[in-house]
Design brief:
Helix 1 packs antiparallel against helix 2. It is built from four helices and 19 strands. The protein has a five-stranded antiparallel sheet with strand order 9-12-11-10-13. A four-stranded antiparallel sheet has the order 1-8-6-3, with no helix packed on it. Strands 5-4-2-7 form a four-stranded antiparallel sheet. The chain folds into three domains: 137 residues, OB fold (Dihydrolipoamide Acetyltransferase, E2P); 68 residues, Efflux pump adaptor protein, beta barrel domain (Elongation Factor Tu (Ef-tu), domain 3); 71 residues, conserved putative lor/sdh protein from methanococcus maripaludis s2 fold. It is of the alpha+beta class and 294 residues long.
């Protein structure tokens, strides 16, 4: 959450819910008496530091001329160091609060690039110090937690390929980050953490999505293919295997289907190339060719 560094009245709201922001962008401005106090304290501290610097320079010059003793020069130097430290402290406080140039308000600034996923500030409203005003989700920080059955758990491992299906059906390439070693809940499901390969603003925090996981072959030699690769031809499941002349329909025995993948128990061998994402187009072309022959 992004908070206000001072209590006061919301003077401006520069960004809205759902908008993308960059690190350092001002989201809102809060007019505050505390801001005026910080600005005043900074000015006073800087003035004292300037005065102490001039005093030290004068005492150092007088000492070199033999007019004043070393003690007075060293005392002026110590006073200068104290004044400079106080000026630095006041400046750091003002910068941390994102004090505006006129000293009347503080800016609410996004520390990261991302998208505004929550907003609880309105123009003219009073906000308390440290009040939650915005939530910004970083583009690289969004991850998806998917549920998988216990039977598929052993076939999924961190680093594996995955795809996040957005609400419009388009896939977002992703990788498996972690897999829980146990199952829980009445559904006896484990959790797989998936993260996009590239930062994307198309994922909305809290939105429900589907995930496709690329599972490994079982130890007994069973193969897996994307579920879209399996086409039904006259009531029989088939894969389209690549040949020198194109593709041929090969009947297969399909096992379990999970996470967008289908087990192939028999019908094809490991290493054979099959149509996957566009298998339905291959089927349509074959049906068209068969109709033309008739």
């Amino acid at each position: 959450m992004i908070v206000s560094r001072a209590a006061g009245t919301v003077l401006r709201v520069q960004r809205r819910l759902g908008e993308g922001v960059r690190a350092g962008d001002v989201l809102a401005t809060v007019e505050s008496p505390e801001a005026a106090a910080m600005a005043s304290e900074r000015r006073v501290a800087q003035a004292r530091a300037d005065l102490s610097r001039r005093t030290y320079e004068r005492e150092a010059s007088l000492f070199q001329q033999g007019v004043t003793p070393r003690q007075e020069m060293e005392s002026a130097k110590a006073a200068l160091e104290v004044a400079q430290a106080e000026a630095q402290r006041a400046t750091t406080v003002a910068e941390a609060a994102h004090l505006t140039s006129d000293g009347r308000a503080v800016a609410v600034v996004s520390p990261i690039a991302g998208k505004i996923t929550a907003q609880s500030v309105t123009l003219g409203a009073y906000v308390a110090q440290q009040a939650d005003l915005f939530r910004v989700a970083g583009l690289g920080a969004v991850q998806v937690e998917a549920a998988v059955t216990a039977g598929d758990l052993g076939r999924i491992s961190p680093g594996g390929q995955a795809a996040i299906l957005l609400s419009n059906g388009s896939p977002l390439p992703a990788k498996i980050q972690a897999v829980t070693p146990t199952v829980s809940g009445s559904a006896r499901a484990a959790t797989v953490v998936v993260r996009p390969e590239q930062p994307s603003d198309r994922l909305v925090v809290g939105e429900g999505v589907q995930v496709r996981l690329r599972a490994k072959a079982n130890n007994n030699g069973e193969l897996s293919v994307p579920e879209d690769a399996v086409q039904n031809i006259d009531g029989t499941d088939a894969l389209f295997v690549r040949t020198e002349n194109g593709f041929r329909a090969q009947p297969v025995l399909v096992g379990t289907r999970s996470g967008g993948m289908a087990q192939i128990l028999s019908g094809v061998r490991a290493g054979e190339q099959v149509a996957t994402r566009n298998a339905f187009l291959v089927k349509a072309e074959m049906n068209k060719a068969a109709g033309d022959d008739e």
